[in-house]
Amino acid sequence: MVKPITMSQKVHNFSAGPGILPDEVIQQAAQAVLNFNSTGLSLLEISHRSKEYVAVMDEARDIVKRLLGLGDDYDVIYLGGGASLQFAMVAYNLLTVDNYAAYTNTGVWAKKAIKEAKMMGKVTVVASSEDKNYNFIPKDYTVPNDADYFHCTSNNTIYGTQMKAFPKSAVPLVCDMSSDIFSRVLDFTQFDLIYAGAQKNMGPAGATMVAVKKSILGKSGRIIPSMLDYNIHIEGESMYNTPPVFPVYCVMLTLQWVEKMGGIAAMEKRNNAKAELLYNEIDRNSLFVGTTAKEDRSYMNLCFVMKDESKEEAFSQALKVANISGLKGHRSVGGFRASIYNALPIESVQVLVDVMKQFEQTHA
Amino acid sequence: MVKPITMSQKVHNFSAGPGILPDEVIQQAAQAVLNFNSTGLSLLEISHRSKEYVAVMDEARDIVKRLLGLGDDYDVIYLGGGASLQFAMVAYNLLTVDNYAAYTNTGVWAKKAIKEAKMMGKVTVVASSEDKNYNFIPKDYTVPNDADYFHCTSNNTIYGTQMKAFPKSAVPLVCDMSSDIFSRVLDFTQFDLIYAGAQKNMGPAGATMVAVKKSILGKSGRIIPSMLDYNIHIEGESMYNTPPVFPVYCVMLTLQWVEKMGGIAAMEKRNNAKAELLYNEIDRNSLFVGTTAKEDRSYMNLCFVMKDESKEEAFSQALKVANISGLKGHRSVGGFRASIYNALPIESVQVLVDVMKQFEQTHA
Predict the structure, then answer these.
(1) Looking at the structure, do residues B209 and B283 belong to the same domain, yes or no?
(2) Alpha-carbon gap: A291 to the closest alpha carbon of chain B (Å)
(3) Is residue B1 scored above 60 in pLDDT?
(4) How far apart, in whole angstroms, are the C-alpha atoms of residue B183 and residue B194?
């Protein structure tokens, strides 16, 4: 009754998010929907308090710490509501009434994070690339020593820029890693709070991961609604209320796949090879041009436009013929965006590069 | 590779939530995980802005209005975070700084809703059954005419009580229907705001449905974080940010199943037959006794204990042999709780009743 995908249907999925997941994760997830761990029940209809599911949640929390190299001073929780809810939660939990927070404004999501924090209190934007349509990462700033915290966005999905290094910070360093977590080797212990919506490198939509040093919590002096209070979710071992059961299960499967493939170092190697293959073609091909400063290019979301915009429709048609999906650029940048998340095979990038080469031959 | 459940594994699922879903919904959900609508992509890895998924969200919103008989003065949205997040959102959106809200305290979830509202402002509890361990529904109260709103819980999952009628209210009537929505015929237009976590009668965990009369919004005078602002989600057509894609899809499938089966009237008929079959046995059987006032008995969560507590372990063993799952009562009531949500077939209740009869013969 349940039919697999035939090879003729195989799509090269460059979607910016929700994005591509490993084939084996999809197979395992479908199996769990039908019969979870041979319980005779679907994962969709079992209690989150069952011992089988508690084991899933425990593993989903532990594996984040294993992969990121975080110690016992960090707690990991999964929440609903998306990374957008974290914009408010970060401020609720960390921003005091009489002090301020420091932010960088490097894209639409950073700007939204700033907007939500401003609803709660004072915010200083220490650096911005907004006036250049966010096409670079500002580096010429220092993190103030007296802020409650410093917030940055590691990768800007829409604009295709990525922070290659992070500033020294004497105050808690908070990072939205929604679109590049688990994609590259970093010293993750430099961050005090990392959050990421699952739907790019971690799993399907519906769960957001937060890894936080518990020592920075409990100091905002605010009355925090229980569901927005990190401490309450930590005390509840990420089960203060019913968690997003199936999305968290898929995150666990995806991170187990990362671990099996060799961890973040192996992902970085894969992603570097994919990104270099495509950026080399963007730079070589006479029809295309990248949209961002070269030193800030994202190795997750690669944005490029056509020098002659009138050829975009024909190129889009060529992509379609090659079964390439999700390459349309965000409306605020235009052109094309190739999101090459962990699960995307290099073969898909090669197909895209081949289409670009072929298109140059016929349309240059 | 993906294997279906064999008949010998078939479990009678009385879980209180996440709870049982229709077999055909589980089959369709598994199919969508493998290949969604023949797109060649998993539902877990497609953009929520794709036309295929926008159609899912539109249908998931529309079908709520069709089934509940709500007109264009209502909007339907799906949010993450669970019904627990609604406890804070209701207060954020409806409770003014200088007035108060009226609540009934009929169970643990009602009490939590009160706690969250009290963090925001003034609350008056107009009726409570807490001193009787919530074993009845208070009826001897009137809803104040000058409150910002009146909040009640239609069904108390833990204690097995259910409101059979709702008070007249001159102020907005807000109802947490998490555990009995779509289970019985009501005049749903008497409510101004209905919310329900999906994981009982609507689908898997990870999505919460809110149906709200837009005319009651925008009056609290508060600065509301965007993700907690109903108006923002309504304006975004429930896609202000990435929604819980797969859980909402499963909700759509489950509600389409309800519609196909004959709508809420058909569900009520099924549920009445199941509840009466089991309550009749609880009342007849010399070993068992119901825990709530008879006139307030829930037709979704049926709570009962053994007159001789020392027989509980043997009875639990008999349940296990019969492949009956999820019947353990909540720790605050003890004994047993049979959750007989829409998707539970009457055959499962009959199996349970047969076990109870058999147990009486051998253990009375």
Answers:
(1) no
(2) 23
(3) no
(4) 14
